[in-house]
Each structure stands twice: as C-alpha cells, then as structure tokens.
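Reopening this one. Same input as before:
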Amino acid sequence: MTFEEMAWDFVEVFDDLEVDQINEVLIKNVPFERLEFFNEYANEFGEAAEIGDAARKRLANLMLIGYLLRVLEERLNPDPPQHG
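Same output, byte for byte:
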C-alpha cells in the first residue's frame, strides 16, 4: 500500500467517526502537549500570515491529521530502509 492510498483510507475512516470516537483516537495516539502545540502554532502562524478565522481553525486539524498519518505509517512500517 502506498502512502497516498493509506492517507485516503485514513481520511475515509476518520470521516465516518463520531466525535467520541475521534476523541478516543486522539487520546490513544497524540500526547496532550502535541495537541496544545498544534493549536498554539496554528493560531500564531495564522495570525502572522493573516489567515482568516475559518481557515485558521482548520490549520490545527490539518496538522493533527498529518501527525496521525505519520504515526500510522510508522506503525505499519516500523523498520524503513536505511539510506546510506
């Protein structure tokens, strides 16, 4: 499975989850400090880049989805080939 296929599958599954299920996924896979960082960074970056409120609120979610995809990728392929 390619990363792109995995990402699309992840988004489809994530889209079907209820709020309590999403919260459970987050609790099990994302340290609280990381969630705080995403929110703070998104607000600061959005403000500095003069991004509108609606898009700024989505920025933290995009960062979070990217993080979850990376966690999933690492779990599915724990020993990536070493480049040397």
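So the earlier flakiness isn't reproducible anymore. For the record, Helices lie at 3-16, 19-29, 32-48, 53-76.
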